[in-house]
Amino acid sequence: MHPKMKKTKNESIKMKTKGTFCLLLPLLMMACGQKAEQQEKQPTRVVVEQVSASAGTATGKEYVGIVEENQATIVSYTSMGTLKRVCVSEGQAVGRGQLLAELDDTQARNMLATTEAQSRQAEDALQRYKLLHDEGSMTEAQWVEVQSKVDQARSQLAMAQRNVADCQLIAPVGGIIGKRYLAAGETALPSQPVVSILDISTVKVKIAVPEAEMKSIGASTPSTISVEAIGRDYQGGLIEKGVQADALTHTYDVRVRVNNPGRELLPGMVAKVTMKNGQGTRDNGQGTMDNGRLTVPLTAVQRRADGSLFVWTVTNDNTAHRVGVTIGEATGNRVQVLLGLTEGQRIVTEGYQKLSEGTKVVL
What we know:
Elements: H1 3-41, E1 44-45, E2 47-50, E3 52-57, E4 61-76, E5 81-86, E6 93-94, E7 99-103, H2 106-135, H3 140-165, E8 168-170, E9 175-180, E10 187-188, E11 193-210, E12 223-227, E13 232-235, E14 239-241, E15 251-259, E16 270-275, E17 282-283, E18 288-297, E19 302-303, E20 309-314, E21 320-324, E22 326-331, E23 334-339, E24 346-350, E25 361-362
Parallel strand pairs: 1-25
Antiparallel strand pairs: 2-24, 3-18, 4-11, 4-16, 5-7, 5-10, 6-9, 7-8, 9-11, 11-15, 12-13, 12-16, 14-15, 17-18, 18-23, 19-20, 20-21, 20-24, 22-23
Helix pairs in contact: 2-3
């Protein structure tokens, strides 16, 4: 074939390939754009709350708390060994002096048998040498040496007996087993936790109280504790107030003691605590106390890089928008909004992490 004809044929193939690619490129870009547009149009799922004037019960302010044990005792061994068995399970009630676990005591008992034999031998020698000492057939120094060996044998015997006894883990207090850290067959190290015993005959409900409200709570402030998990209300007792504030939230830990004779209240349960003070509110004539201000959850208020605060609102067409706010006093887990919102607006309380201005949302 002539070189010029061959060159012309190759150029023709290249032009056809290039033309095909140019035709396909817009189609590919359109498909990608449609896919991206579909992804952008996918609404974000959020949870919203309608803004309304704050209202508390006539009995006072409410807080959300967590039930804690009165005291936790960690039980461990003083020596190393292999656990032969653990006699209790989590949640089981135990009494003081009850057997909790046992170590393999084979080595300890062998050592006890050896020291018992040595002790008997020393005691026998003491009796024989005593006769010689009484007859004056041995010096005083020899007699003191015999007595010292007997004392050593007795001390070793007591230690061996103690080692055998220490293979049994005994409950130092009564309560319920909170957690079992080791199982049969595992090696227990000195001071390593084996089980924890919780005293829940009396429990404490821990709440976080804003610094501005600490002055309204005293050691004997009346309170009511409601626990939804068991559907019961309890009368709160003595109140313990923390003295160190959380650096981020500026709240103090307050613990309310509650009698729990039936052991129904368990550590970790969520409780609603109502402090019967009623300060800072006014009666609205409907059996509730209303301060006339709007409140939102603390977690709904976000902070921009410049330090200003905002919340995410949802309009009637389910579009998210940032709205700047000025907040006031915090009460429990809510905070007053002084400026920026009006009653009836919808704010996002969950799912705001994925939002941007103008994002479509689904409720």
